[in-house]
Design goal:
Layout (H helix, E strand, L loop, with lengths): L14 E5 L4 H12 L3 E6 L2 H9 L3 E4 L9 H4 L4 E4 L11 H22 L3 E5 L24 H19 L6 E7 L1 E3 L7 H8 L5 E2 L5 E2 L1 E3 H13 L2 H4 L2 E5 L5 E2 H12 L7 E2 L1 H15 L10 H5 L10 H7 L7 H14 L4
Parallel strand pairs: 1-2, 1-4, 2-3, 4-5, 5-6, 6-11, 7-10, 8-13
Antiparallel strand pairs: 9-12
Helix pairs in contact: 1-7, 4-5, 6-9, 9-13
Length: about 350
C-alpha cells in the first residue's frame, strides 16, 4: 500500500468507480487508487476479466456501456465515477456500435450517476476531438475537428455530458471532462509498434516527419484524473481539460529520441504518404468481413499526418496540473518495460 498524498486527501472515505479498468489508462488509474488503499471498484467487459481482478484481491464488476439496462442499483452508493471505458481501435464495428458506447452509454452512465446522488463524474474524452489541429498549440476552445468515428463519438459523448451538467442543481454532481493526449508508458501496447520498429532498426518515417505529436506519460495522466476529482467545484464543473506531458515534438524529434534512449541508430529513409494511405483503406476493406483488426488502417496512418500540439495552461491553472515526466524519462521507462517483458 502507498500513502495517499495530501493533495488527494478528499478521496479518503469515498467510494470510487473506474470503468474500463482492463484498459491501459483505466487499469493504471484503478490500480493507483487501490494502491492508495481507497475503496475502488473497477469494471470489466467480460466476467473472466472481473474474476481475474478479484483473484488479485481487487474489487471488480462487469459493466457494458452498450447495455441499456438501468444501472441505478449498480451505481448506488458510489461517490465518484471515473468513466474511462470506450470502444477504441476496433475496426470490425461501425459508427453505431461506437456511438452506443462512447456517446449513448457514457451519457446513460452520467445520467444515472446524477440520479442516484454521485458527487462527481469525470469523463475521459480525447484531445482527438480537435483532430488535425489548425491552431498550434490548440486550447480547449479551439475548433472541433474529429477525424474518425472514435473521435466523433467521443465528442458526441463529451458534449452530451456537459449539456447534462448544465441542467444539474447548483449543489448537484460536479462534472469534468478530461481529454488525454497520446498516452504511453509501461503497460501500453498501442505505441509498441512504433517503439519496436525503431528499436529493431525497421522504422521508416511516413511523410515528412514534421507534423507535431504531443505525448502524455501514464503517470501524468492518472495524476490529472485525480486532480480533477478533488479540485474545487468552481474550477472544474462543466469544464474540459487537455492533458499531455511536456511540450510537443515533431515526429522526427520523437523517433530520434526513442532511438537515442534505446541506444540504436535511426534510419533517415522516408516513405511517401499516399501509397500507405491507400494501402490502409484496402486493408480495412479486406479485413472487415472477417471481423478482425487489419495490420494497417487509416487511424494508424493519421499518426504521421495530423498535427497534435496542446496548450496546457487551463489544466495548470484550474487543476494545479504539472507534468512530472519529461519525454526522455518516460520513453526510457517505457523501453525498459518493453524489453523486460520481451516485446522488443
Amino acid at each position: 500500500m502507498i500513502e495517499l498524498p495530501e493533495r488527494f486527501a478528499a478521496l479518503r472515505g469515498k467510494r470510487l468507480l473506474v470503468t474500463g479498468a482492463t484498459g491501459f489508462i483505466g487499469g493504471a488509474l484503478f490500480r493507483r487508487l487501490a494502491d492508495y488503499g481507497l475503496e475502488v471498484i473497477g469494471t470489466a467487459l467480460e466476467p473472466e476479466e472481473a474474476r481475474a481482478f478479484r483473484e488479485q484481491g481487487l474489487r471488480s464488476e462487469v459493466l457494458d456501456l452498450a447495455d441499456p439496462t438501468p444501472w441505478d442499483d449498480f451505481l448506488s452508493g458510489v461517490d465518484i465515477v471515473f468513466n474511462i471505458a470506450a470502444r477504441f481501435q476496433e475496426t470490425q464495428f461501425d459508427e453505431g456500435d461506437y456511438d452506443r458506447v462512447n456517446h449513448l452509454g457514457a451519457m446513460n452512465l452520467a445520467q444515472t450517476a446524477a440520479r442516484v446522488g454521485a458527487e462527481r463524474f469525470v469523463q475521459c474524452s480525447t484531445v482527438g476531438v480537435h483532430g488535425d489541429v489548425k491552431e498550434n498549440p490548440a486550447t480547449e476552445e479551439s475548433p472541433f475537428n474529429p477525424m474518425d468515428l472514435y473521435h466523433r463519438t467521443k465528442l458526441a459523448g463529451e458534449l452530451a455530458i456537459l449539456d447534462l451538467a448544465r441542467t444539474l442543481p447548483e449543489d448537484g454532481m460536479v462534472v469534468t471532462v478530461n481529454r488525454p493526449a497520446m498516452v504511453y508508458g509501461p503497460g501500453d501496447l498501442r505505441m509498441l509498434k512504433l517503439f519496436k520498429t525503431i528499436l529493431t532498426g525497421r522504422f521508416r518515417m511516413i511523410g515528412s516527419g514534421e507534423v507535431l505529436a504531443h505525448l502524455g506519460y501514464i503517470e501524468d495522466q492518472t495524476e490529472s484524473f485525480l486532480l480533477g476529482a478533488v479540485a474545487p467545484r468552481e474550477r472544474v464543473h462543466c469544464e474540459a481539460f487537455n492533458i499531455a506531458s511536456g511540450s510537443p515534438l515533431t515526429l522526427n524529434e520523437l523517433a530520434a529520441l526513442i532511438a537515442e534512449c534505446g541506444g540504436v541508430k535511426l534510419s533517415r529513409l522516408h516513405v511517401p504518404l499516399l501509397p500507405v494511405w491507400l494501402a490502409a483503406i484496402l486493408c480495412e476493406q479486406l479485413w472487415k468481413p472477417f471481423g478482425a483488426r487489419p495490420p494497417l488502417f487509416r487511424r494508424r496512418v493519421g499518426f504521421f499526418t495530423h498535427n497534435r500540439a496542446f496548450d496546457l495552461t487551463k489544466a495548470q491553472k484550474h487543476l494545479g496540473y504539472r507534468s512530472a515526466w519529461p519525454h526522455r524519462d518516460g520513453i526510457t521507462e517505457t523501453i525498459r518495460w518493453y524489453r523486460e517483458h520481451g516485446f522488443v
